[in-house]
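JOB MANIFEST
job_type = single_chain_structure
chain_count = 1
residues = 243
[input]
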Amino acid sequence: MEHLARIPKDRIAVLIGKRGSTRKLIEKACGGLLQIDSQSGEVNITWDLENSDPIIRMKMPDLIMSIGRGLAPKRALQLLNDDIFLKMYDIREWVGRQPNQIRRMRSRLIGTNGRIRSLIEELTGCEISIYGSTVLIIGDDQSLAIAGPAIEGILRGSEHGTVLYGLEQDKRKQRIQSRSLDSHQDRIDEPNSGFNALVPGLAEARRKASRKFTNSPVNIQSEDDISEMLELADDEEILYEEE
């Protein structure tokens, strides 16, 4: 039996679900059997070590903790994917332990009718849960890379407009970088497409031609370089005649 996490008592019913439906859903997804102590909130699991995935075993504590910190179970199950991760902030590290300051910061993070949280989720692709004194984010590496600084900016007291503008700029930079990578990949694949594909050997002929006009000398110690220099094209030949 492995200990996974301890969750608040008011989240135990959410983890179990109606007639145990949520627990069964999680057990089916992870391949283990959950033991939930309804008095203490302690959650343990028994694994079938021969058939369980080690990556899922490693991610299960985060999944249980995310449900305990307010995330809906079906959204938390995304954490079992290889490319989805969790990041958590404690509001008390920024504003102290006074309840009124924690409530004020929670309101700033959520916004009127949840508008700020929704905008951050929309711009970053992350899932955000604000529960008690914690802020929890799940998403892929790129999403967390831009959502994290936005949450930290609000916790430091930055204006909402400044944070959202920064998010839009970071999102635009990611799109530009993605297009640059796609363009670079297209240039790498270019010899195998277009006109080069219609004329077999054209790319190789261009490479040899560029070799002839470079200023770098042939390495006379390299048999490959010498052979390439002396290699004849298909339409070339050597004729020996007497003068």
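[summary]
The chain has a mean pLDDT of 83.
The longest strand covers residues 42-47.
exit_status = 0
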